[in-house]
């Protein structure tokens, strides 16, 4: 059932993209080209067939989105994604940084020979 709704959802998305691209442009973005100086707050134009089809497809798209969300919520486990991967979720201070759960072991390359770690980060010009 979920796969059927997902396929319908994808087809609605493609149809919605196509219908929006078929509509006549008014010459400007964000309602700038409607004329009369009204901008986005001007009176609505007469509903065309493409406009009504756009609203219908948008409503169906939202309905399938909500349906898929409800299915996903019902099928989800109460645990975390990390629990399913088997990653230990205990927040411990493993490396003494003072940040629980931060393990920096292996993130940095080993120090070079004779490096004490207290030198400048940027080499000095000689």
UniProtKB/TrEMBL annotation:
<dbReference type="GO" id="GO:0009306">
    <property type="term" value="P:protein secretion"/>
</dbReference>
<dbReference type="InterPro" id="IPR004692">
    <property type="entry name" value="SecG"/>
</dbReference>
<dbReference type="GO" id="GO:0043952">
    <property type="term" value="P:protein transport by the Sec complex"/>
</dbReference>
<dbReference type="GO" id="GO:0015450">
    <property type="term" value="F:protein-transporting ATPase activity"/>
</dbReference>
<keyword id="KW-0812">Transmembrane</keyword>
<keyword id="KW-1003">Cell membrane</keyword>
<comment type="similarity">
    <text>Belongs to the SecG family.</text>
</comment>
<feature type="transmembrane region" description="Helical">
    <location>
        <begin position="53"/>
        <end position="73"/>
    </location>
</feature>
<feature type="region of interest" description="Disordered">
    <location>
        <begin position="84"/>
        <end position="126"/>
    </location>
</feature>
<keyword id="KW-0813">Transport</keyword>
<keyword id="KW-0653">Protein transport</keyword>
<dbReference type="Pfam" id="PF03840">
    <property type="entry name" value="SecG"/>
</dbReference>
<keyword id="KW-0811">Translocation</keyword>
<keyword id="KW-1133">Transmembrane helix</keyword>
<dbReference type="GO" id="GO:0005886">
    <property type="term" value="C:plasma membrane"/>
</dbReference>
<protein>
    <recommendedName>
        <fullName>Protein-export membrane protein SecG</fullName>
    </recommendedName>
</protein>
<comment type="function">
    <text>Involved in protein export. Participates in an early event of protein translocation.</text>
</comment>
<keyword id="KW-0472">Membrane</keyword>
<dbReference type="GO" id="GO:0065002">
    <property type="term" value="P:intracellular protein transmembrane transport"/>
</dbReference>
